[in-house]
Sequence to fold (161 residues):
Amino acid sequence: MISKGGFTVREAREEDIEAVIDINKRTLPENYPRFYFKLHLHNFPKAFLVAEMNGEIVGYIMCRVEYDSLYTNPSVVGRKGHIVSLAVLPKARRRGVATALMKKAMEAMKNVYGADEFYLEVRVSNMPAISLYKKLGFKAVKVLQKYYGDGEDAYLMARPA
Ligand code: ACO
Ligand code: ZN
Fold:
């Protein structure tokens, strides 16, 4: 289905991994080895999505559902849907691609994998991403000091499923 923004969102396939790795390298300092992407695709295929525009992959979201987490509210028991990585190529931004990826991934984490809560970490300086998450109902619940390799802090953001 083509959305009104001119893009489609679908589950990722093994052959999409190279494009996902390329987008990740071009847009984020947090890069992962190929097996890490493959592991998430294998374990949570319904919550690993790509966005296509004119036949080109322009964005992805990679998630996992955890039974316990070091970071989130320990009084909330249950499964936590962790948004591990999300990115959209600059030329495809501000058209709702990330919003669509987030909504579909959260739906899958809840309905397919039984998540009760969603959470993610984001750089405290990453205003575009923080705005996106706030718009989707996430709240900053904690600051994770020096979370990133370069010493920057992260906000732990979460919302109920
Ligand atoms: N400035 C201010 N607000 C913004 C911006 C911006 N540059 N970008 C998005 N937003 C907010 C706006 O409220 C926007 O709604 P609007 O366009 O109606 O004003 C809303 O978020 C939704 O925007 P989308 O179009 O859905 O987001 P987009 O497809 O442009 O992707 C993203 C946003 C993923 C943050 C993109 O800018 C990106 O890839 N950045 C680099 C990688 C990155 O930071 N990824 C997130 C890291 S955290 C993690 O992965 C868990
Ligand atoms: Zn994380």
